[in-house]
Design brief:
The chain is α+β, with helices and mostly antiparallel strands. The protein is built from 14 helices and seven strands.
Length: about 400
């Protein structure tokens, strides 16, 4: 199985986009996954390459005619080019670069044409040993074509038509009436395999959509659409591979939310939570993560690392959430927010430790009357901003007053 971090580029040419069209309303991430499936199953690819080259060489040994020798050369050239582009695509995807998807798809179609060409000239040669070998080889390739390209049913249909269709065409021009039955068998086979490919593709897309929806539900809060605790864990792991990338965790609790629930009902409370969630997403910069971990508690993972910057960011969150009227359907509610802050790595390196530390700071902010932020106590990390003087209430201070306090504590 390929590395899931590898991303294969969607085709850009109109003809290749048509060939790999997965159906209407298929999300982009699923389309990318289907393209990745075209690059997979290397053993099947190798088996097909060895088979078609070996068959063409055997027939050329029996019938060393120019058209058959040209077929051998074409097979070797196309198979070598496909293998080169396949390896190039894997390496480009692993490095996050553009993959040669259009060329890869085009080479697959040309290879199918080459197989069909060899089948046609073998039947037309009048040598029934060569014809039988070529037709059996072409028929055997259909299974590999379907299995390797199940994510692109149109591509499957075109490749089967090009590789196996010439058998029927050769039967017409062979002069053998008994072979005319092939002109009925092959079209029927082509249609049935194409229908099977489309059905398998729909089943695959449906399964992938269900998997993605389940994964989304597992990582997101059903009410607000924000990340939940599991999604938060994934976010912090993705953002902190080591101590060289400090982060800040902001633990938010809404002030006055219980009053809204008691006064207007839980439906109004849910509506308020959704509005707050949307507002929080608008307040954080790109790259920061916002989560709801239960009730009226929210968490923000920010790339802010300095204590003073974290406090200023917390002030901006408070200003964006507090003191504003919220329409909750049956009335107008006003709430505030208190924030506890923990820093990574000085306050911990795992989510649970950071949450406990930030929760303690949040309790301190609540005890000071709410509508303020408090940063967890701890040793001052090297190069960071000064820690406010112990015992002085920094809640409710504007940024200028806080900066003056930090300057005093630094002396």
């Amino acid at each position: 199985m390929r590395n899931q971090s590898s991303v294969y580029s969607l085709p850009r040419w109109s003809i290749t986009r048509w060939l790999v069209h997965a159906g209407p309303d298929v999300p982009t991430d699923i389309r990318v996954a289907l393209i990745q499936s075209l690059y997979g199953t290397l053993p099947i690819f190798a088996g097909g390459v060895i088979n078609t080259i070996a068959v063409s060489i055997l027939i050329a040994t029996r019938l060393p005619q120019p058209v058959i020798l040209a077929w051998v050369a074409l097979e070797i050239l196309l198979c070598a080019a496909r293998l080169f582009v396949l390896i190039l695509g894997h390496r480009a995807a692993a490095r996050g670069r553009q993959t040669p998807t259009d060329i890869y798809i085009l080479l697959g179609v040309l290879w199918a044409f080459s197989v069909g060409y060899g089948t046609f000239i073998s039947v037309m040669s009048g040598d029934w040993v060569a014809a039988t070998l070529a037709c059996l080889s072409a028929a055997a390739m259909v299974g590999g074509i379907c299995f390797r390209n199940f994510g692109a049913p149109r591509l499957v249909a075109v490749m089967i038509l090009l590789s196996l269709g010439p058998c029927a065409l050769g039967a017409v021009f062979s002069g053998e009436p008994i072979l005319l039955i092939v002109t009925f068998q092959i079209p029927f086979y082509l249609v049935s395999m194409t229908i099977a490919a489309f059905r398998l593709n729909r089943l695959l897309v449906t399964t992938m959509q269900a998997e993605r929806e389940n994964e989304y539900r597992a990582r997101h809060d059903a009410l607000t659409g924000l990340s939940n605790r599991t999604g938060l864990l994934h976010a912090i792991e993705a953002r902190s591979p080591g101590k060289d990338r400090p982060l800040a965790l902001f633990y938010l609790d809404l002030d006055g939310f219980k009053t809204v629930n008691d006064t207007y009902g839980h439906a109004a409370g849910d509506q308020l939570l959704k509005v707050v969630a949307g507002r929080l997403q608008g307040l954080v910069p790109p790259g920061d993560a916002v989560a709801r971990i239960g009730g009226d508690e929210f968490v923000i993972i920010s790339t802010t690392s300095e204590r003073s910057d974290a406090l200023r960011f917390g002030d901006s969150i408070i200003a964006g959430i507090s003191g504003t009227d919220y329409d909750v359907g049956d009335g107008i509610a006003t709430i505030g927010v208190s924030i506890g802050i923990a820093l990574l790595p000085q306050h911990g390196e795992d989510l649970e430790t950071l949450l406990r530390t930030a929760d303690t700071a949040l309790y301190d902010a609540k005890s000071r009357g709410g509508a303020c932020c408090s940063i967890a106590a701890g040793p001052k990390p090297h190069g960071s901003s000064p820690v406010p003087v112990d015992g002085i209430d920094v809640c409710g201070m504007d940024s200028t007053s806080r900066q003056r306090l930090e300057a005093v504590s630094a002396r």
